[in-house]
Amino acid sequence: MLPKIRIPHFFLLLISLMWLSCSTNKNSFTKRDVKKSEKLIGLHFANKDIDTLYPYLKRNRSGFDSLRKYPIGNDVFPAIRFDPTPFGFTMPEQQNGTEWKIPDNVEVPEPYDLLAFYTIPQLASLIKNQKITPTELTKFFLARLKKYQPTLQCSISITDSLALEQAKRADEEIKNGKYRGILHGIPYGTKDLMAVPGYPTTWGAAPYKDQFINETATVVKKLEEAGAILVAKLVSGALARGDVWFDGKTKNPWDTTQGASGSSAGSGSATSAGLVPFALGTETLGSITSPSTRNGVTGLRPTYGRVSRHGVMSLSWSMDKVGPLGRNAEDCAIVFETIQGKDKNDLTTIDLPFGVDWKKDIKDLRVAYLKKDIEKDTTESGDNLRKALASLKKMGIEPTEVEMPDEVPYRGFDIILRAEAGAFFDELVRSGGVDIMVEQDQRSRANSLRQSRFIPAVEYIQANRQRQVLIQKMQDLMKNYDVLISPSFGNDQLTATNLTGHPVIAVPTGLDDKNHPTSMTFVGNLYDEASILLLAKAFQDHTSFDELHPPGY
């Protein structure tokens, strides 16, 4: 029988503290932890394999820690860049520039508030013919922004001083015969993901509500060079999700019990209510299409790489697009022609001219439609789309029935967006800053960023390989057509085209029985915004849905 060994209480306490310290070290992990992780990734390894790979995992962890010692600026894109062009793709012919017609017979309206819903050409006519000055127009829209901000909660910053300074310059230039073009003196708003010196760029999220970025986003700079006047930085849902931001929820002016949808919530709401003639938004997975539909405006999401994202918050480097929301397709075309083009600060941009031949006969367009998807929508939105399709047929369009690519893992593609967002907001998650975001539920951006840390790199690469398959399938679908007509929601089109980079335009189709706007979507070939803009303008010239405005504004 072995003698009992008495251990002093001091040593027992010391051993307990050492054990507790080791067991609670956040930087340590054991082979048992590795075994538990197998369930998360859906794999199983034998114990001997785990014994072998355990030291390798520790080296990986050391590599993670090493990478995190070197901060990365927000403007740094990954060295691996997305290219949307498929095998066998032929670049569509491009027209260099568009002939913008500024009418001569436009008058200042009575009542004056109707000015809020004038199109860009109408406003340009008043300015060019000096029936109204840029300063007068700017003050008009600034007043509307301030009046309706408490109701709609659509603005982050109303840029009074900058706007009046730009307006004064426009006044002097136009008075002295220096007319820059159709956007000269036209006020606008931009989504608050875009940097403007002197004003906070909050990204709609509490951790960044006091953030100032001392640079000008390329798209803002291009509009300034065209003579446009920035009157507001408009709400982005928190970190480009939804319509909830750090100080409220942006409202739909057609029904203020509804949110404006997102994440270009402020851009959609303010344009719809006539607080700005047009606005810039961004889309990664519906953030132009959705607020355009909800608020009853026209929204153009250009081809991936057509518009610079320099100075714009990234959510997904391989999916983000910048585009306009406006009164109609022509307004979107005017803005798009101004902001598109090669930018040395964004290596994903392409050097390609753009223009629309408005005289081209729409009957020469090769049009397809997703018949099954359109017919299965039994809602009033579906009814309105079918009526719109009937109108297009009366205009001479004879669309061909097609279907979206099948046998595609659409649900799995969420991995790409989440993984890239997790990388951009890595520090936010690791620092705990994500915890102060307003929304913390299962569908919140905060929760999405946390879960991104559990996406294996292998699955991210596999998702991108499947993406390449989808790109080829979309090429097979679109190669024989110029325009594809689709529901805006309820099918796979929105996911597919955001992944492949195809351009789309959301076009209003009327109201449902609750007076909520509805829309349809025209999909174009890569780099062929001209065809979808041409058909959208023709449809809007034939109908009046784009002229509907929310009552009370």
Q: Could you explain how this protein is built, in words?
A:
Helix 13 packs across helix 15. The model is unreliable at 1-24 (pLDDT under 50). The strands form 3 sheets. The protein has an 11-stranded mixed beta sheet with strand order 1-3-2-8-10-9-14-15-13-11-12, with helices on both faces. A two-stranded antiparallel sheet has the order 4-5. 46% of the residues are buried. It has 18 helices and 15 strands. It has 553 residues and is of the alpha/beta class. Strand 14 (504-511) and strand 15 form a beta hairpin. The radius of gyration is 26 Å and the shape is globular. The longest helix has 22 residues, at 457-478.
Please report which band the strand proportion falls in: under 5%, 5-15%, 15-25%, 25-35%, 35-45% or over 45%: 5-15%
Strand order of the largest sheet: 1-3-2-8-10-9-14-15-13-11-12
C-alpha termini separation: 94 Å
* Number of alpha- plus pi-helical segments: 18
- Give the rounded overall mean pLDDT: 94
Provide the low-confidence segments as ranges: 1-24
Query: How many strand segments?
Result: 15
What's the main sheet like?
A: 11 strands, mixed
What is the approximate shape? globular
Radius of gyration: 26 Å
Helix coverage percent of residues?
Answer: 25-40%
Pairing-aware structural class of the strands and helices? alpha/beta
What key phrases describe this protein's structure?
single chain; 15 strands; 39% helix; 553 residues; alpha/beta; two-stranded antiparallel ribbon; 11-stranded mixed beta sheet
Task: Please summarize what this structure is.
By secondary structure, the chain is of the alpha/beta class.
